Amino acid sequence: MPTSIDLNADLGESFGQWSMGDDAAMLDVVSSANIACGFHAGDPMVMRRTVTAAAERGVAIGAHVSYNDLAGFGRRSMDIAPGELEADVLYQIAALDGVARAHGTRVTYVKPHGALYNRIVRDDEQAQAVVRAVRAFNPELAVLGLPGSRFLVRADAAGLRTVTEAFADRAYNADGTLVSRSRPGAVLDDPQVVAERMIGLVRNGHIEAVTGELVRVDADSICTHGDSPGAVAMAKAVHSALRDAGITIGAFAGQHSTEPQER
């Protein structure tokens, strides 16, 4: 059984007068923050505020890149030319890293968001575009994604550090992919159930699919979405359950290095 694991959350997803989630509370729980870069959510002020709060807590900062889709919160699949997608991802990483460096920290990994995340599980062309953008910006960055995805396969082949994740608050299909949000029960909202699922995952490497089958999921990190119902309570329940089981919570990519930071 692993002795440590990372907890990550999608944060910085407010925009202008629109507020999403309780970032401050989540940053007290997680070890890595996937911060929106302005394409699906977030804006310069939100990025700055979230980066500052993460840095103050020693939480690792990741660029949460997406399709250019503010209206759809980045959850609409888009057919974008590979070159354009590569440029969009590069732009987002650079924007967040610039804010981070101005506050004495930096981006240490990249995690795609929403429809882009799910698209590059199987779409090799778009997966390669994202990988090229990450390498062009900094080949030392880690990338976070779904186990077995084309994205992680291509990233590994390109020499990037790949990190696998499981989703605490999402239901799984029997093939290890996530149940579409359009289906009932796709998002889980019971903190106790979620915590028990994650303990089982860390101990045994399996998670129960909606069909009742046990699916093998090799995860180095566990994600709780910041916009899920009761997100903070859920993250706290998972954190407490893992710590009670003797598992250390630590970032896979530290604030200034790749050494884990215990939380």
Instruction: Write down the secondary-structure element order.
Output: EHEHEHEHHEHEHEEEHE
DSSP, total strands: 10
Largest sheet, described in full?
Answer: 7 strands, parallel, barrel
| Assembly level | single chain
Terminal CA distance reads 19 Å
| Number of helical elements | 8
Give start-end ranges of low-pLDDT stretches. 256-263
The overall pLDDT average reads 92
- Measured by DSSP, the beta-strand proportion falls in 15-25%
Order the strands across the largest sheet as they lie in space: 1-2-3-4-5-6-9
Which structural class do the helices and strands define? alpha/beta
Rg of Cα set? 17 Å
Outline the secondary-structure elements.
Elements: E1 4-11, H1 23-27, E2 32-36, H2 44-57, E3 60-65, H3 82-102, E4 107-112, H4 114-119, H5 124-137, E5 142-145, H6 150-157, E6 161-167, H7 191-204, E7 206-208, E8 214-216, E9 221-225, H8 231-244, E10 248-249
Parallel strand pairs: 1-2, 1-9, 1-10, 2-3, 3-4, 4-5, 5-6, 6-9
Antiparallel strand pairs: 7-8
